[in-house]
Amino acid sequence: MEVKLKRVRAFILLAEDGVMALLLTAMILLAVTQILLRNFFDSGIIWADPTLRMLVLWVGLMGAIASTREDRHIRIDLLSRYLSGSRRSFIQAVTDLFSAIVCGLIAWHAARFVAFEYEDGSLLFGSFPAWAGESIIPIGFGIMTLRFLFNIPLRFLAGDRQ
Amino acid sequence: MLIALGLILVALFGAPLFAVIGASALIGFHQSEIDLAVVAIEFYRLAEMPVLLAIPLFTFAGYLLSESNAPHRLVRVTQALLGWMPGGLAFVALIACALFTAFTGASGVTIVALGALLYPALTEAGYRHNFSLGLVTTSGSLGLLFAPALPLILYAVVAQQLGIGGSITVDDMFLAGILPGLLMLLILVAWSLWSSRGVKLIPYSKAEALSAIREAAWEIPLPIIVLGGIYSGYFAISEAAAVTAFYVLVVEVFIHQEIPLRKLPQVMREAMLLVGGILVILGMSLASTNYMIDQEIPTQLFDWIRARVSDPLTFLMLLNLFLLVLGTMLDIFSALVLMVPLLLPVALQYGIDPVHLGIIFLANMQIGYFTPPVGMNLFIASYLFDKPVTQIYRATLPWFFLLFGAVLIITYWPSLSLALLDRS
Question: How many CB atoms lie within 10 A of CB B3?
């Protein structure tokens, strides 16, 4: 069971990194192509600019998911470094729970926003539906919610080991 | 009030800042009985600002550069060209660091990538240990005011979102940073000259200069293309970022082959961790700022401050002190996103130009990196050079006072920041 879980975990991490690398590469290539077209051929791809802006949102949220995984979000953390052992684990579990609740609420309301856009049928450019691009917001915050929740028991395990 | 205190407490106990800001927005909108979907809608505005494209692209290029041997080549070429002058190696360190920080966006990678090369070189050339430590630690955040540094871009983005004080473009910030940045550089160069009397000079070697230039031939055009492109107006900021990312990718991965292709996703992930961290904070703050303006919180803050501080001069002085303390606690990106929406409206009421405020803010945050006792670069230097942090404090202190002097000049001499702009 444990071996299987580890394999699933490794697969998810690999998939996340792969998607992130793919999105960033696409961003670089698309942006450069657009510049070349503009400067040398006096033309351009119509959907390039909105796609690039959408990629910023996607890359940003993928990065945020990875930050949650590695516990490397930007934080102040002046106080908890003075705590030790089990107290520290407890405080970390509380901040994880707090973050999970915030992310969960945002994911839920973002899902409502996306559902509204779906019914509305709004288009981003040409025929690309806006809801598909926006869907990364509930997905991203949803994954972060789960990550923060899974972190809570891990904090105590890590605390015991120290 | 109780809620605000609670949020500050969770932040101090290490909750991610984006969650704290998000919570404040959710609570605020909930109390005003506004549909909470507004938070998601505000967050989605991240996909509506073309200039944000520059953030992932420049960050990736910066990480790629610091993972390759480019820092080594940069030091070698500046050393070959400038090293023969009195205080030469100190110049090399200052200029190389400033250039590197401008391109990597002051994320703390300069001191790691260049410090490890420069510190042994400086002590070997006969510079005092503490002088070299101070120089390297201080230079870790030098160059923040030069294009295309990320903090300049982010300030313009945040200020523009507020929609007050006229237009504040990234180009304005890029122009405004030049003279204040040069002032800082000049002060440190003068101090290095003074302190390095008696250090043996290294003779200039034409052969070494040529060979160093040849080695760095692929990287030398980069600042020229990017800065030339931006300042001439040929490239938009996001285009300059795309060209930089693509160029650096081709040079370091395919021409120099210093980063194997299979290591590339790892470098990308490292860079995107920082980008994701910045963007979620920015996205959340778009929502919380919207709420704050709705509730006229900046106006209330101004009324409160005006009752106590009557003249702009006192306000600026307090601002300097406040930012100094803030800079030791918050990293530059969250400080920008959190404080600019509050400070900018207040500063405008005191008649301070928004662009000038941005430069004051960033110059202050720059020295926050090495303000004792908790500046981030002090600890990085202590770890990197294996010296007690108290020694780093002592070594950095003269540099700190010099740059604090520079910050005061920048603060009370607005035309230094505004001279190159049309608005002054």
Answer: 12
B210 bridge partner residues? none
Q: What is the reported pTM?
A: 0.90
Handedness of CA B6, B23, A61, A111 (dihedral sign): positive
Q: What is the DSSP string of B174-220?
A: HHHTHHHHHHHHHHHHHHHHHHTTTPPPPPP-HHHHHHHHHHTTTTT
Query: What separation in angstroms does the CA of B11 have from each of A98, B15, B29?
Result: 10, 5, 20
Q: Rounded mean pLDDT of A39-57?
A: 89
Cβ distance of A74 and B281 shorter than 8 Å: yes
For tokens 């300059």, name the residue.
B240
Span B119-146, mean pLDDT? Answer: 89
Per CB-CB distance under 8 Å, the chain A contacts of B50 are: 49, 52-53
DSSP string, B317-381: HHHHHHHHHHHHHS-HHHHHHHHHHHHHHHHHHTT--HHHHHHHHHHHHHHHTT-TTT-HHHHHH
For residue A128, report the phi and psi dihedrals to the nearest 5 degrees: -80, 120
Higher pLDDT, B338 or A60: A60
- What is the residue type of B199? V
Residue B83 has pLDDT above 90, yes or no: no
Is B15's CB within 8 Å of A72's CB?
A: no
pLDDT surpassing 60 at residue B424: no
Question: Helix crossing, B150-162 with B332-349: angle to 10°?
Answer: 40
Q: What is the pLDDT of residue A162?
A: 42
| Count of other CB atoms within 10 angstroms of residue A91 | 18
Chain A residues 2-41 with a CB less than 8 Å from chain B: 17-18, 20-21, 24-25, 27-29, 31-32, 34-35
Determine the Cα–Cα distance for residues B239 and B236; give it in Å rounded to an integer.
5
Range with the poorest average pLDDT among A97-111, B70-84, B100-114, B169-183? B100-114
Instruction: Yes or no: say if B254 and B87 are a contact pair by the CB < 8 Å rule.
Output: no
User: Is the model's pLDDT at A44 over the cut of 60?
Assistant: yes
Q: What gap in Å lies between CA B236 and CA B143, rounded to an integer? A: 21
Q: How confident is the model at residue A70 (pLDDT cuts 50, 70, 90)?
A: confident
Question: pLDDT tens digits, residue range B354-385?
Answer: 999 999 999 999 998 888 887 888 888 888 88
**Most distant CA atoms of chain B, gap in Å:** 73
> What distance in Å separates the CA atoms of residue B364 and residue B369, rounded to the nearest whole number?
9
β-bridge mates for residue A123, sequence order: A129
Main-chain phi, psi angles of B163, to 5 degrees: 65, 25
Q: What's the pLDDT at A59? A: 95
Q: Which two tokens stand for residue B108?
A: 């703390």
Residues near A60 by beta carbon (within 8 Å), at least 6 away in sequence: B46, B56, B275, B276, B278, B279, B280, B283
> How close does chain A come to B38, measured CA to CA in Å?
8
Average pLDDT, chain B: 89
- Cα–Cα distances in angstroms (integers) from residue B370 to residues B104, B121, B319, in the given order: 18, 22, 18
